[in-house]
Amino acid sequence: MKSASSTLRSLPRSLREEPALLDVLGRSNAVLAASDAARSLVVANLVERTAHRPVLVVVARTSEAELLARDLTSYLGDDEVELFGAWETLPFERVSPTPETMAGRMKTLWRLRGSAEGDPDRVPRVVVAPVRALTQRLAPTSDFADPITVRPGGRCDRDELTTWLAGAGYRREPQVEHPGEFSVRGSIVDVFCPTDVAPVRIDLWGDEVDRLMTFSVADQRSDDKADAATFFACRELIVTPAVSKRAEALVGSQPWGRDQWERLAEGLVFDGMESWLPWLVDSDEVLIDRLGADAQIMLSEPRRLRDHISELADEEADLARTLAQTWGAAAEGEQVDWPRLHLDGSRALGGADS
Known about the structure:
- The chain is globular.
- It is 35% helix and 15% strand.
- α3 (39-49) crosses α4.
- It is an alpha/beta fold.
- The strands form 3 sheets. Strands 5-6-7-8-9-10 form a 6-stranded mixed β-sheet, with helices on one face.
- The longest helix is centred in the last third of the chain and has 25 residues, at 302-326.
């Protein structure tokens, strides 16, 4: 009897002779109608037929992206699909996105660099993104935080590892209980990478990894041996010298944000620092710029996507006007010309908005 997973993997092949699918193969700007219930199956079928990698699938809402990514994983396999989530925070809100969201985005961006770095198999077959994530400006510093991988028998300097974890947004705690935390007890380092389902315990003998185990958060007991563990940064805005210099200049030119600029200029990491990304970088890179020449883009309900992009722009503009007065950056009724976190649709979609 076939397992449930193998049965699901075979479902996309059942549509191989579907005339509507055959009609769009190899065509640019092709339009295909499919019900919501069949969307993931249709996408999986098209992905299996194309030689393009990755295929970017854009949907309107985060909940849709999460559901589609989960379904596509069932059809295509765990390592073939990445969800590029949107920040849960509003533009200019002085709250950081969750470690799970930022680490997942960092993992996706790292995998997308696979072809350029001579490792094309690292590139996922599918990336699913809500339009909010697609239009959001990326931090160029996200390229600086390559993941760290540890393996039993491999070298791992405890101090170097903990310094990297702290700089990558992990919080040091007496005991690891939540994603994005690490703890140190002598030669033992516990790390809970937000892209993993369980934390790992690194038992060091000098600079060598003696044992690598997963463990339970509930009772802190080790479970199973692990062959390797890869830790992704759980903060997207890394305070590089260039970022610090930019923040220092803002102290004089934008005095209403002096407290934040001074902390960033000093290289400090604090909650909500991502809110200031638009002021700290000149780059207007978005996800589509990181896909590579071999990528293909699928838009789910393009008109709905354009409407949602327009709503995002209006929302951000309204927030800017309100907060500018609250923060003393502008007088009542005065217009503000703040840099945007989200770019316009034509820029984000790279012209593929039909």
